[in-house]
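ERR on first pass: missing label on line 2. Operator R.T. fixed the label and resubmitted. Corrected input:
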Amino acid sequence: MKITLCQLNYIVGNIEGNALKIIEHIQQAKSEKSDLIVFSELAICGYPPYDLLFNSSFVQQSIGAIKEIANHCVGIAAVVGGVDFNYGDGKSLYNAAYVLNNGKIQHVYRKALLPTYDVFDEARYFEPSYEPLIFTHKGKRIAITICEDLWLPQIDIHPAPGKPKYQYDLISSNNALTPDFVINIAASPFSVFQHSYRYELLNKVFEQFNCPLVYVNQIGSNTDLIFDGGSVVYNKKGEKYFLPFFQESHSTIDLDTISAKGDVFQQTASLYEALILGIQDYFIKNNFKKAVLGLSGGIDSAVVAVLAAHALGNENVHCLLMPSRFSSQHSIDDAVELCKRNNLSYHIIPIEQPFRSFEQSLSSVFEGKENDVTEENIQARVRAIYLMAYSNKFGNILLNTSNKSEMAVGYGTLYGDMCGAISVLGDVYKTQVYQLAHFLNTQNELIPIHIIQKPPSAELRPNQKDSDSLPEYDLLDNLLYHIIEMQLTIPDLINMGFSEDVVKKVYRLVQNNEYKRYQAPPVLRVSSKAFGYGRRIPLVKKF
Amino acid sequence: MKITLCQLNYIVGNIEGNALKIIEHIQQAKSEKSDLIVFSELAICGYPPYDLLFNSSFVQQSIGAIKEIANHCVGIAAVVGGVDFNYGDGKSLYNAAYVLNNGKIQHVYRKALLPTYDVFDEARYFEPSYEPLIFTHKGKRIAITICEDLWLPQIDIHPAPGKPKYQYDLISSNNALTPDFVINIAASPFSVFQHSYRYELLNKVFEQFNCPLVYVNQIGSNTDLIFDGGSVVYNKKGEKYFLPFFQESHSTIDLDTISAKGDVFQQTASLYEALILGIQDYFIKNNFKKAVLGLSGGIDSAVVAVLAAHALGNENVHCLLMPSRFSSQHSIDDAVELCKRNNLSYHIIPIEQPFRSFEQSLSSVFEGKENDVTEENIQARVRAIYLMAYSNKFGNILLNTSNKSEMAVGYGTLYGDMCGAISVLGDVYKTQVYQLAHFLNTQNELIPIHIIQKPPSAELRPNQKDSDSLPEYDLLDNLLYHIIEMQLTIPDLINMGFSEDVVKKVYRLVQNNEYKRYQAPPVLRVSSKAFGYGRRIPLVKKF
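pass 2 clean. output:
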């Protein structure tokens, strides 16, 4: 049987556009004499649609589009993800996989396991259904499953915190019905580890089914969630034929004769690709073209600048260098050098004049008070005014350059360096930022080595260094990883060997800075636990 | 039977403190010879705990505290809301009501209906259980229910969008077991209409049970969610004995002899009380004392100033008046007059100097470009720098003064007037702000009448008025209510009689400004659909 895997990039809510795209690929697959074409989960509306699902026009249009697509399914069958009405008790919708054939909807499979943890809110919208679907096409018995349906606790060795022990086992239900092969349509977001977890899990799924498996994931980034694709066919021997990661792909294969085609996975490279896709799609899907960012001469903004240049084209990235009285000459020189090496346009706008006017006009109000974090924050906020003014005047979108380590401990100024439309590195720890910098320098020294080698500093007061008030980043990031991703408790962390003082200090910093992150830009998610929708901590609390 | 209703204000996560408070009230009830004391839903950890529930220390401490409280339940029984482990399939926790008696946990009821819509995410944390609990105490058969358990679709005539048609009917299950009376422990947040919906619903619940009903809700505000209390006893005749709204209450009543005690509900008064509680608890629970806000001379900041003075004491509210070259003299005069009438301290800090220094330093960068929204935003952001500088230097917490109408249409400057720790009016439409202003002026003209009567203006360019670019607020707010709270679609709205042009323009403004609201402060929720956790719209979308 010839099967076409369609790993496509959908725009959330763009039902008409997504449907047209799906129809084009059906036409192409017909010309390739394909028997069956498979699209990803909720392809018709893009994943995640969130509360657009409460809009009745949205749902009606989604279902109407499925019927329109069905008209094109003559001589070929298609599996398309969409929503379906539930007229019975429970939530009013199902997360469905439509089997289209002979110009009509032939079958509807409805998702059983609805992820409701981390970034997933599926129980908010959908009712589960516990009826397996096996349909026959061209003499083959084909089982349909949707994403989480396969992530059974007994085979998922890295369950996300909050993930339930699902009682329903669709794999066994399907096995009892002896399928010839199994399809899974997915919307499985990227994270640095998810990547390997996913294929570990699918290997086990294959073992349990012991028949070919066709897995189709979406690609593309939707605000904060990045989908890497990585669709794969397991042939009957369990050999894996991978579609490419981080790009659209239309692949027509013969399930009987297909052999292995590997994926090349390297952690930092995939992190790089994920961030590039995240930046690109934020701009493309919003019809934005140009970016602006503040270049401090430090490593975070340098890495964001180079990523942005790769994602958007260097001609579309503008940098503002905004030295203060505390900026070292090397910071300015390093930032200028970075712009030159990467062909980025820039302006140098010293912040002294507005900073001084704030100091002067506040001098009577602040009389008798020492300088403190107030004056540091004024500098960061003056820079934000310049960046947003540039953005407003020229339409360049401001990229935020905060990293995950500093967002975690609140080492950043709200309405200052925490500004931006999208946070590029907000889910990338400082130690990973260094890895990215080295990765970006593999071929050419795009980031002047001095930027990488000098000790990190916010340069908001004389001779300031990050290490004055924070543990070294190797230690800090390791601890933060165990607090945020692994969700360990203070006793757990002390038992692991972290010093009690450091644990308590860092834990308190993380807890006390929820209020800053609440107002932070959306963060491109590249870990199993990013700041944002997937992490919901009360702001007012005692714990 | 003597029953004590405990309508208390808990701090989320303050397990030790909440437990101590519960124990104190148990002691008091014992001294009153009460037979049974009832606390609200998740009393032990406060509602909503959100992802603190994924922290194993948090759960263990919560369960440990219940055992500690049980030690005090000798000679009195208690019903206390808390979490319980689920060792079976599904989510690892239950939302439980513990029946404590004779020094131990005697029964555990586990919530059946888990709200997972709007601000509620209970399916993220809890497994439902469909076993009714009726226990016998002092010869009475007592049924236990938790909040949503009673909100059955067949009797809820105002279901929230996204609310499912629950298939399980605990009322019938309990009725079959013939209870003598029914207890409901709740964490039911305030909204202007929720207030009447709640008692409409409880009236119907009473009809169905046809036996006394004891309803205990929490009070207090947790970040954005305000709980109004309003606990009530329905005696066997269905007469209602209300506990007070918006304050803690410990009421020991005799279920056999209790007669009616009414509540006095007035919509604007309750809105006022809700906002006062929202401000107070944000400060008290965070150990903050003083507030700062920017006074423009307009109605929004005037109302926030007076509310803050009432909530925190006028000595704890400081105002900054920051006139620009576009500010009218009457704006400054009105703002000064407001401060005088309400005994608020203030500084006048003209923004001309820093504004001009931004203009000058950007003149070469912006050469050949016309003035536009950029310069308006710079003014708003300069003011934000002053406000945050004052906040940083003196520890006063910045109150945001944006109203719901302007947040809805994006009529505000991100990192400018959208700054603040908490948004006081972000769920209050402009027309409601006027109602609040008149309400505040009932006894004395706290808000100079000129502030209420003049046409609204942002004063960011010469002779600017809100009505230059927006429909009149009566029309706008009515339309926004139907878009946001009622979640109607464009065709629905046109069918209602709104003009197509206005509908399309306003709908697009609402959709296109999600990105601003994403970075807005938490908003005190006083409607059935506030901006924030309860409304999850993708930022990148086409719909």
